[in-house]
């Protein structure tokens, strides 16, 4: 989604606080790529982001998972 890429460009931390359908389609890799950075932090408050291996470049947590590098 081009809007998400534009919004997340250069964001080093992302907080997902809603469970809108467009967020359910995203993965940790999608968010890392959209940021354009080499490492980011994601706090998934709705447990909707799909975990995808990012070579340890994303620090992720959600309501049901502890902090983990993915």
Strand order, main sheet: write it out.
Answer: 1-2-3-4
Which range best describes the helical content: under 10%, 10-25%, 25-40%, 40-55%, 55-70% or over 70%? 25-40%
Strand percentage lies at 25-35%
* N-C termini distance: 22 Å
Strands, count: 4
What is the tally of helical segments?
3
* H and E string: HEHHEEE
Mean pLDDT: 94
Poorly predicted segments: none
> Radius of gyration, rounded?
11 Å
The general outline is: globular
The SS-based structural class is: alpha/beta
Question: What does this 3D model show about the protein?
Answer:
The longest helix is centred in the middle third of the chain and has 8 residues, at 28-35. It contains three helices and four strands; from the N terminus they run H-E-H-H-E-E-E. The model has no long low-confidence stretch (mean pLDDT 94). The chain has a four-stranded mixed beta sheet with strand order 1-2-3-4, covered by helices on one side. It has 70 residues and is α/β, with parallel strands linked by helices. A hairpin with a 2-residue loop joins strand 3 and strand 4 (65-69).
């Amino acid at each position: 989604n081009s809007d998400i890429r534009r919004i997340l460009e250069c964001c080093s931390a992302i907080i997902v606080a809603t469970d809108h359908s467009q967020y359910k389609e995203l993965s940790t890799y999608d968010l890392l790529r959209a940021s354009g950075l080499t490492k980011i932090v994601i706090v998934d408050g709705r447990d909707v982001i799909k975990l995808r291996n990012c070579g340890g470049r994303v620090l992720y947590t959600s309501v049901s998972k502890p902090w983990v590098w993915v």
